[in-house]
Amino acid sequence: MRSDLHKADDFIPQSLISAFVQSGRWKLIPALLMLGLTQLASMQGWPTLLCFIVSATGIIPIALLLSDATEEIAEHSGPTIGAICTAVFGNCAEFIIALSALRLGLIDVVKASITGAILSDLLLVTGVAMLVGGLKYSEQSFQETMVRTNGAAMTLAVMAMALPASLISTSGIDDPVAIHGLSMTVAAVLIIIYFLTLIFSLATHSHLFDPQHIHNDDADAPQEAAKKTNLVPWIIQLIVSTACLAYQSESFVHFLEPATEQLGFSALFTGIIIIPIIGGFSEYVPAVKGALKNQMDLSISLAMGSSLLVALLIAPALIIIGSVIGQPMNLDFTAFEVIALIFSVLIVNLVNMDAKSNWLEGVLLLGMFSIFGAAFYYYPS
What we know:
By secondary structure, this protein is mainly alpha-helical. It is built from 16 helices and two strands. Helices cover 80% and strands 1% of the residues. Helix 7 (107-136) packs parallel to helix 13 (281-292).
């Protein structure tokens, strides 16, 4: 009997099972199950609404895998590579969904998803982090200089995105060629500004944007040991998760339009509320983790950095890509989208002004996001 038990232990060592659970690799199981279920739903011709729910739900476990890999790489690869990795792959789901929608010609949905991603990062991600952290700690603080610099850059980005729409509405320009040329020019300028902000935050003024590596002499030894961690499995997980996310996003976007029509959702509401909530799921987890560890610098920098990435890089990139693939897109957002963006930046800057947060400020941001959601739901199609 004992020999049989030893054979079973040798076949599946307890240490291997424990390592599998502790490493978070068990999250591969629900991700693979949802991928298979999505494929089955598509092949078997399930009802459109059910296929949409399955494909949307399937994005969540994949986004969690992506978030884990990104967080691990960012923690052990140093501030520069970590910051770039977190910013790029943290918004990977939203970008892939928007790109898939762009390829299918859903221009209005793509535009709305850009607005929604910024609103979600500024109000929803920041609000959830402040609420959760505030319930555990009476008051939390973060770097004032970092918030002020990111706030100024975000204000500039929103104003730059709002200017083309304002010019078009006030001047009466209706020439598609002129509108597209204006959008391409603004897109090029925004991309240049984004890379200059990277140089500022990661090179010349990195000390202002390095909350993960607070100067602590006592922690130097553990950090040095952590840097020796093997990152190859996490890099593989990052690549595989991105590939799975691309496939799942294609399925999600394929069922998006018919399903939302059945639900009575407009393209504007779908892009601004539904896509960011599902696609941005990988951003909520690290933001909440940072708040629970009383590291609001991490949560605020994630929210602000993600919104900057969307406004200064993803939106301009989609305009350029759309022109290349024959799906021309411009920056002619609706007037209400522009108003929503300006108000969201304004309230976030006001809340972050004192570089402190509590649960009530989180409720204020979440309340504002809910009001915008209701307004876009009732916005005429």
